[in-house]
Amino acid sequence: MSGTSDRPTPEPSLGDYLSKLRGAAGMTLREVEEATRRDVSNAYLSQLENGKINRPSPNILHALARVYGVNYEDLMERAGYLVAEPNRTSEKRHGRVATFAIDDITTAEENQILEYVAFLKSQRKRK
Questions:
Q1: How far is the C-alpha of 90 from the C-alpha of 106, rounded, in Å?
Q2: What secondary structure letter does DSSP report for 26?
Q3: Which structural domain, as residue segments, surrounds residue 54?
Q4: Is residue 6 part of a domain?
Q5: CA distance 115 to 18
Q6: How far apart are the C-alpha atoms of 47 and 42, rounded to whole Å?
Q7: In the structure, what pLDDT confidence band is assigned to residue 105 with cuts at 50, 70 and 90?
């Protein structure tokens, strides 16, 4: 009997994944706070990484995806907002955000729209 198992290795928790991303980026909690323009406080990120918060809001995930340079949709899946679809191509991503009405939008254009929506939301907070 070998010591290996046929079971797939489970995905790391959202908190573990975020902690690994921050480590890979060589950033402190405070540096992430600054990079997100204070959208994500260092205390909140610490709670996320330690599993005290398991389902942050989508705008928090978007800010972190932008800072870490990872796919926003991946973070949304890890947080439980989206169900992973293994056969989904980048051209079939629509329906997840307000871009569902546009058939020929590219992934880059969709990301620009998401950034603009995040900007609009940040402006709303200031009023």
A1: 8
A2: T
A3: 14-126
A4: no
A5: 20
A6: 9
A7: low
Q: Coil, strand or helix: which one is 69?
A: coil
93 part of a folded domain: yes
Encoded amino acid at 55, one letter: R
Structural domains counted in the chain: 1
Taking the C-alpha atoms of residue 93 and residue 123, their distance in angstroms, rounded to an integer, is 27
Q: Which amino acid is at 111?
A: N
52, 16 in Cβ contact below 8 A? no
Residue 73, judged by CB atoms within 10 A of its CB (0-12, 13-18, 19+), counts as buried
Q: Write out 98-124 in H/E/C secondary structure.
A: HHHHCCCCCHHHHHHHHHHHHHHHHHH
Tokens of 94: 């629509």
The reported pTM is 0.62
What's the pLDDT at 120? 76
